[in-house]
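Structure tokens please, single chain.
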Amino acid sequence: MNPEQRQLAVSASRAWFLAQQWRTLTLFILAALVFFMMAPASAKQAFGEGCGPLKTCGDGLSCHPFIQKCYHNPRKRDEPCMAGHSCGAGLTCQAGSQTCVGPGRDGDSCHLTKPCGNGLTCEAGRQKCVGPAKDGEACHLTKPCGSGLTCEAGRQKCVGPAKDGEACHLTKPCGKDLTCMPGSQTCSAGGRPIALPNDFPPPAAAKPAAQRLAECDASKDPKCYARGSSEKMASATSNCLYGWNVGKGHPASNTNPPDYSNLINALDQCAYFHDRGAWQFNRTTKTCEHWTSCSNSMGLSRCMERFQPRNKDEADAKACFIDNFKEPMKACIPALYQDWGAEYATAPSGEQWLSAKSIADLRGAMKQCPGNMTSPGFPEK
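Here you go.
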């Protein structure tokens, strides 16, 4: 056998050997696949059992990282928790221990990730769950008072509604049917008898507009200003005198106030109610503010701003009021005062007057603040 023949024989022998090896490997792989396909499925891990890539958890469970054990998904009370493995409803993942905890009970420790249960608050400083403070007990933002009590500023004690004759203020309100009287700051069940015109009908129902204007022009004491171009009106740089009531210090006489039936228009009507403190009752705080307060001033401002002038005199009077009143009103925040008592309606005469609802609301407010419904020295009317 020459060298070339010998080389071919060796090559053939190697090829046969490799073919046999490949055939054996193929048979082994096929046998292994058949074995794994026919072998029974391995059981999934139960709660608390170890888990990993080859040991999956059963239904409703998940493998917790690092601990490598199966826990409920979502986690239940006292089970470990972390991002991606959260607690169930009503539970929180407590920082530090990283375990699911329920709402704290009275006396339990508490913090941001361990809140208190219903009706309890986490008291700052002590970090304990506490219930509402009782009458006479200390109170603050994180320890509020119980039902029917308020946390009195200064003393920081829970108090009940003040009784007739007792001191009162914003954080110590009066009881039912009592009013906190400005100045004295005491609760009162009433005041001086209130004499109010019956039903406050629009002045248009009592006298024609021409007659009211004529009486205004002819007036002397108290004086009425019917013309926006009058000498008094034109020279008033920081005040607006108009009608029987509009303007600071007007009417000049407090002993003989103008009658409601004489009002020349709704601007005069707005000032009439303002001078008697009709808007001084703050519907938000349920207290009677001073007649010069933002509450009374806000009502007057809204009332006059919504008035629709029908002639130049009325337009001049309204413009003068708004221009001179805008600076003082900057100290008042409209959102803090409810909008009421400034709704208009048209009388049969065609004149614009405050609606029956507004008048009823204003009368009711005047009764809420008895004895404080007029400017100083102004007798009730």
